Amino acid sequence: MNTKNAQSMLNSDLAHVWHPLAQHSTFQEKPPMLVVSAQGSRVTDSNGREYIDTMAGLWCVNAGYGQQSIVDAACEQMKKLVYYPHTAANEPASALSAEVSRVLGNGLDRIYFTNSGSESNEAAFKIARQYGRQAHPTENRFKIIARHRAYHGTTMGALSATGQSERRWKFEPLVPGFLHAAPAYCYRCVFGQKYPGCNLECVKQIEEMILYEGPETVAAVIVEPIVGGGGVLVPVDEYLPELRAITKRYGVLLISDEVICGFGRTGKMFGFQTFGIKPDIVSMAKGISSAYLPLGATATTGEIFSKFLGRVEDRVQLTQVNTYGGHPVSCAAALANIKIIEGLVDRAGSFGNALLEELKKLEKYPKVGEVRGKGMIYGIELVSDKKTKEPVSNAIMAQVAAKAMERGVMIGKTSMMTYHLNNVIWMSPPLVLTEEEAKKIVSVLHEVLKEL
Ligand SMILES: Cc1ncc(COP(=O)(O)O)c(C=O)c1O
User: Fold this and answer.
1) Could you state, in chain order, the average pLDDT of each consecutive group of 10 residues for the chain (452 residues)?
2) How far is the C-alpha of 302 from the C-alpha of 396, rounded, in Å?
3) pLDDT number for residue 114
């Protein structure tokens, strides 16, 4: 793009666009990057500079940029049937529901389509609450237990589940009935315990909450198998199986928010598969279409779905609609995307975990408190003092990201989570990341973190 065009685009942007999360006053000094193209794991800006995108956009371009088969599938579908509401059936959505059921397995074979992760979680909460009323008519199961640091979305229900105070407080009061437990976060265990001698207090706390609230008032527990935007918090292997057992014991549904963990990110198709559990409801978005087009989905089991069956006059059907749910073009793109992801998922495990071992070597630097991850999702927690674990300032985080960017590597950093803990670098690169690109990421991080 020539300089004049780029400047004119930026002028329009600065005059009219309201960017997410950004403080616009900073754009006078440093305007937003104008991204013009992307291929594989690399994006190019309007100055022709290329960067390795370790964020896969926003944890979403799992198949990598520029996959022709996805583009072709979407184009062909656009010519044939661009849209029809999902009150009727359409070919791509029908085929995709079968594909998503197949890759989910575990009897999760009923799929409701949405357009985003937030909407998938909203649908999950509605399914859980309505199921609670219809499966247990003498009870009042409406509460949803989530965890601090988790991110579940931006709409009012999904934000109510989100456990990140800075994202919430300007909009409070939020939706009643959402409660928060401690995250599975050994590095900063709120119980002051050390694994494995901790008796999994973090998961026991959820059982205590269910008992204190009264199980007959609790509809569901929602978890990201690995908390993503909240700092890449990887639970110990026993955590999710134990949580599954507890929720089962009290008739509480378990919702797995796979918006980040789904579609290959953790080295299996879904995060719940990586940890060997079977949830009752799964919410998805991002990697389902690798962001080629907006799409989300909420899956559940036949057993749960059966509680929504009856005569029309019983009014037990799910009272939920999304104009663009089951959009034929998005679904066609997702079908082509899943084919690609299936070919990448094993590599995401082996190559991804090998990259994690390399990244772990960064722990030798004084400001690197912990490096963690699984498959192709990574968090690097920065502290000013390894003993006290005092988090580094937002200014240092900005400096680290800027220095990596100068060297051609874009990294993510946690932001607006809580006032005191925005100190984790995160990466979730496209699953097509090459060995050479991985080496460059590692060497740039060594250079930048050594200097701190
Ligand atoms: C785990 C998780 N759930 C839900 C969402 C919300 O997705 P969306 O931004 O598509 O609404 C996100 C977004 O980052 C997420 O990371």
Assistant:
1) 87 95 93 96 97 98 98 98 97 98 98 98 98 97 98 98 95 98 97 97 98 98 98 98 98 98 98 98 98 98 98 95 97 98 98 98 98 98 97 96 98 88 96 98 98 90
2) 50
3) 98
Beta-bridge partners for 111 = 299
What does the DSSP 8-state code read for residue 251? T
Please say whether the beta carbons of 310 and 316 come within 8 A: yes
Token pair recorded at residue 5: 């065009």
Q: Which of 239, 249, 261, 45 is nearest to 151 (CA)?
A: 261
How remote is the C-alpha of 375 from its chain's centroid?
A: 14
- Sign of torsion over alpha carbons 298, 302, 303, 309: positive
Both tokens of 394, joined, read 């937002």
- Distance between CA 151 and CA 159 in Å, rounded? 8
Minimal-distance CA residue to ligand 1 atom 16: 260
Pick the CATH number of 68-341 from 3.30.565.10, 3.90.226.10, 3.40.640.10, 3.40.50.1970: 3.40.640.10
CA-nearest residue for atom 3, ligand 1, is: 152
Per domain, the residue ranges of the chain are 3-66+345-450, 68-341
The CATH classification number of 3-66+345-450 equals 3.90.1150.10
CB 160 within 8 A of CB 151: no
Find the 211 Cα to ligand 1 centroid distance in Å. 29
Residue 294 Cα to ligand 1 middle (Å): 12
Phi, then psi, of 192 in degrees rounded to 5: 65, 25
Which protein residue has the closest C-alpha to ligand 1 atom 8? Answer: 117
The reported pTM is 0.98
> 193 alpha carbon to ligand 1 midpoint, in Å?
30
Q: Give 262 Cα–ligand 1 centroid separation in angstroms.
A: 11
Residues near ligand 1 (Cβ within 6 A): 116-118, 121, 151-154, 224, 228-229, 257, 259-260, 285
Q: What is the DSSP letter of 32?
A: P
CA of 428 to the centre of ligand 1 (A): 14
Rg, the chain, Cα only: 22
Whole-number Å distance, alpha carbon 113 to ligand 1 midpoint, is 15
Atom of ligand 1 nearest to the CA of 294: 10
From 116, 286, 288, 290, mutation site for ligand 1 pocket: most ligand atoms within 8 A of C-beta: 286
